[in-house]
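Worked example 3 (structure in, sequence out).
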């Protein structure tokens, strides 16, 4: 996996995007509800699966949500599993 990542919040499309070497490799769709960000679907380009890109886009999205003073609501199973594997990030979860 490369360290040449570009992470952006595409607010018009309601998704976070992760690019590696300029190529779109993973996205995390979301829906805003006040100060809560429902993380609805993580998707990685099928040719790039198994490379950890979904974890990177999820971690960076959670960082962005936390920096904005918002809370995350994991709707997607992958994101819920990610939070289970990162209990130190539980403070970002919506009640």
């Amino acid at each position: 996996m490369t360290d040449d990542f570009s992470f952006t919040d595409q607010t018009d499309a309601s998704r976070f995007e992760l690019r590696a070497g300029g190529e779109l490799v993973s996205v995390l769709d979301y829906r805003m509800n006040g100060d809560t960000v429902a993380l609805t679907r993580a998707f990685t380009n099928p040719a790039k699966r198994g490379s950890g890109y979904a974890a990177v886009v999820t971690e960076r999205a959670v960082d962005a949500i936390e920096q904005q003073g918002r809370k995350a609501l994991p709707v997607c199973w992958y994101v819920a599993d990610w939070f289970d594997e990162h209990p130190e990030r539980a403070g970002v979860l919506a009640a």
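Notes: The chain has a mean pLDDT of 95. The chain has one domain: 5-90.
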